[in-house]
């Protein structure tokens, strides 16, 4: 299904109700590497491992709760590469989620894994495997919840090789219930993205840390050499999201959120600042049926562009999804429209993703 976040911002921040979605919105980090070098991510895991151990250490709780879910869907993506003239491709997508929760004193510890595989036409497949260790604890006499999580992921993409990467992330969040109808949330995240393949500037999708399109303008150092050369990089993406949820009735709720993100990159033309706002509404008009719609807007300003140009991207996103519960299963269909306009014309694109499928909780 679609509608991950009603904002086209690459920060995987949880929202008060689940919304499946596209795989392109993620974040990353890199340190300088010579052209053509394979980026290594062992230093990222050395940073992350002590945190994982710190969270995990503690008395083992009895009777842990295990939940498993799967999803199988098919659809059509009009522009999976998010390029100015990219071809449309049909796809089949399979996903599996598993999580095990433990009670540790006054807190909960959950270990979760998620994997999905998207089989496009021809040899254009992509997949993502991630694991997260999540610690949560109630505060403010039960009105608030504090959470800390550490995550790692691998992403592979045969269609846009420049986007392939390994990831590590630390996330801090706080949710607070104000009234029976209203709640607010704040989430801060730092994500390291270790790109596997040296690539030209802006050779990947915009928002995935690399940019958009097949190839792109040369970096400043490449211009001095007279031609563009592939470069390796590690980026660090830091983001903050503030959200407010309101229940209009027991079966209708809305979420409005604002996001600010800053991507730091050793390749100057890949560094950017992004701000966005989004609104989503979920309703259950009749028993077993759920309808969700979302709109989003963002502005991404890159630090530098070749030949003294400036690059600013404006993205508008609209999505609608409908699902029908069938016991432990559900059928769903959704469509997502994305319009990206850039001050550098060849970086503008349009994308429509339509997807229908079946999900099941085991």
What do you see in this structure?
- The protein is mostly beta strands and 362 residues long.
- The chain has a single domain (42-361), classed as Porin (Beta Barrel), CATH 2.40.160.40.
- It is 6% helix and 54% strand.
- The chain has two helices and 14 strands.
- It has helices at residues 42-56, 220-225; strands at 65-77, 89-104, 107-120, 126-139, 144-157, 165-177, 182-195, 234-249, 252-264, 272-283, 289-302, 312-326, 329-342, 349-361.
- The protein is globular.
- 40% of the residues are buried.
- Mean pLDDT is 80; it is low at 1-42, 55-62 and 209-226.
Write a compact overview of the structure shown.
The chain is mostly beta strands and 362 residues long. The chain has helices at 42-56, 220-225, and strands at residues 65-77, 89-104, 107-120, 126-139, 144-157, 165-177, 182-195, 234-249, 252-264, 272-283, 289-302, 312-326, 329-342, 349-361. It has a 14-stranded antiparallel beta barrel.
Notable traits:
single chain, 362 residues, mainly beta, Porin, 14-stranded antiparallel β-barrel, disordered N terminus
CATH class bucket: Mainly Beta
Average per-residue pLDDT, rounded, comes to 80
Order of helices and strands: HEEEEEEEHEEEEEEE
Report, as a whole number of angstroms, the end-to-end distance: 18 Å
Strand content: over 45%
Number of strands: 14
CATH topology heading:
Porin
Percent helix, as a range, is under 10%
Shape: globular
CATH architecture term:
Beta Barrel
The CATH superfamily is known as monomeric porin ompg
> What does the largest sheet look like?
14 strands, antiparallel, barrel
Q: Write down the domain tally.
A: 1
Helix tally equals: 2
Residue stretches low in confidence (pLDDT < 50, at least 5 long) are 1-42, 55-62, 209-226
Work out the radius of gyration.
Answer: 20 Å
Strand order across the largest sheet: 1-2-3-4-5-6-7-8-9-10-11-12-13-14
What structural class should be given to the helix and strand makeup? Answer: mainly beta
